[in-house]
């Protein structure tokens, strides 16, 4: 597989088979992440591979947050149960963090570098026949989760990566050509 094939073959996977992701594959993907360029060689990224207890904490917090948007108590209970079930079914859950440098310029550079590391994981997953769903949002900064995951104050959760073998072949979405968003300046 070429790099271009991996880029064009990458898509968000939200449904996985029950096949576990071998530890060796996770470790190999994380090694790709740390090969990402990072200005000043700060190597700001950090990774958590969630086990059962950490997953339950995530499912509890996410379920609570989603259920809070539902007024009917029984419907809210069902939302929490669905989140718990879905979280337990994801073959591998990774959390990517970044060190929060005091210098705002370095902080921005480190955030960008961490996303490049996430992209490396995504492309490596494609090469291995794995799918990835990159999740962000307010839940990542929930104080209860930060405690459960032992995230120190000098780190920011950048994204959660759901990883596994795709349950089905996706339908790729069309993208606007780069030319429609490119201006050549003399």
Features:
6 helices; four-stranded antiparallel beta sheet; globular; 15% strand; 186 residues; alpha+beta; 4 strands
What's this entry about, in short?
The protein starts with a helix and ends in a 22-residue tail after the last strand. It has a 4-stranded antiparallel β-sheet, covered by helices on one side.
Explain the overall architecture:
- This protein has 186 residues and is an alpha+beta fold.
- The chain has helices at 3-9, 23-33, 52-67, 73-89, 104-127, 143-148; strands spanning 45-49, 92-99, 131-135, 155-164.
- Helix 2 (23-33) packs across helix 5 and helix 3 (52-67) packs antiparallel against helix 4.
- The longest helix has 24 residues, at 104-127.
- The chain is globular, with a radius of gyration of 18 Å.
- The model has no long low-confidence stretch (mean pLDDT 95).
